[in-house]
Design a protein that fits this description.
four-stranded antiparallel sheet; 1 helix; 3% helix; mainly beta; 173 residues; globular
Length: 173
């Protein structure tokens, strides 16, 4: 495909870290060591890497909830939500959290207590290509929350994401 200088493209950047939600003590699932880094052997491609430490076994009924909020001066705007049973969706490649499960090399439940090293986890954003427009540019907060089968909070993490527009000559708009 030939890129013309006025063609618009979109870049998705991660803040470079996974933080605990404000006021939440993540002592069950910890992944604050995650960072954005170059992927080994893939020139120019970035991925997430770090450790996910589980201090309790993840069993059937443990739920994960993913929310995306667009940050603005007028307040945060709700954009997207997905929720599901982690164990019930381990093999579902369409689940938004599947790249994390695959990078942890997990295929069955219960998920044992241990530290899982995640290296060069890339997120395939092909599915979002049609959504990436000028109006979508901005800063976002992705919240990932985990609850027990009894709906008790286990963990809450925030990941900053930004979408920017640029032309093929590299100028950011």
């Amino acid at each position: 495909m030939v890129c013309t200088t006025d063609e618009r493209r979109y870049n998705v950047d991660f803040s470079g870290s996974v933080d605990s939600c404000g006021g939440f003590d993540n002592n069950v699932i910890q992944c604050e060591t995650f960072e954005l880094a170059p992927v080994d052997g893939k020139d120019g491609e970035l991925g997430l890497q770090g450790d996910i430490e589980l201090s309790v076994e993840i069993e059937d009924g443990t739920m994960v909830k993913l929310e995306v909020w667009k940050i603005s001066d007028m307040g945060n705007e709700y954009m997207y939500r997905a929720q599901g049973d982690i164990c019930g969706s381990l093999k579902d490649e369409n689940a938004p959290w599947f790249p994390v499960v695959a990078a942890m090399n997990i295929s069955e439940c219960p998920i044992p207590v241990k530290s899982y090293a995640v290296k060069d986890m890339t997120l395939d954003l092909k599915e979002t290509k049609e959504m990436l427009t000028h109006d979508m540019c901005g800063d976002y907060m992705v919240m990932m929350m985990f609850t027990t089968k009894d709906n008790d909070d286990m963990s809450c993490h925030e990941i900053g994401v930004s979408i920017s527009e640029y032309t093929c000559d590299g100028d950011e708009k």
